[in-house]
Amino acid sequence: MAVVLLVEDEMFIRQAAEWALEDLGHTPLVAEDLSGALLHLSATQHIDALFVDIRLNKLALGGYDVANQAIGIRPNLRVLYTSGSTLTDDMTDMFVAGGQFIQKPYSPAQLEFAVRKLLH
Q1: What is the rounded distance in angstroms from the CA atom of residue 91 to the CA atom of residue 65?
Q2: Partner of 49 for a Cys bridge, out of 20, 27, 78, 101, CB 3.0 to 4.6 A?
Q3: What is the mean pLDDT of each run of 10 residues along the chain (120 residues)?
Q4: For position 62, what pLDDT does the model report?
């Protein structure tokens, strides 16, 4: 299964996503903001995917900033974006190459499908 860096600033959503990833057999690494994500990305541990909320409160471009910096550190990282907002062309235009999207709220089954699709 995959090692997934989860970046979500809302505690209850972050915890639910972490538990869902664990229940699906993945290893979640958890961060609530860019600095926490960078700590994980700077470590030597392998990371297969970044699962990031587009609307992180403390960043001008939110999850886009996290994804862009993550790709700068780990160019082969796959990125799965999420948001409670409806996906628009303006949003997808800012995705890193190969970035995919899952709409909130999502079920564990939807999350598993999105992670599998992202990694294969």
Answers
A1: 13
A2: 78
A3: 95 96 97 94 94 82 91 97 92 94 95 95
A4: 85
Taking the C-alpha atoms of residue 85 and residue 53, their distance in angstroms, rounded to an integer, is 10
- Name the token pair of 13: 């959503």
User: Taking a C-beta distance cutoff of 8 angstroms, is the pair 66, 57 a contact?
Assistant: no
**Structural element, H or E, at residue 102:** strand 100-103
Tell how far CA 52 is from the center of its chain. Answer: 3
Where residue 104 sits, what CATH number does that domain have? 3.40.50.2300
Task: Count up the domains in the chain and report the number.
Answer: 1
Q: What Rg value do the Cα atoms of the chain yield, rounded?
A: 13
Query: Which residues span the domain enclosing 83?
Result: 3-119
Q: What's the distance, Cα to Cα, between the start and end of the chain in Å?
A: 12
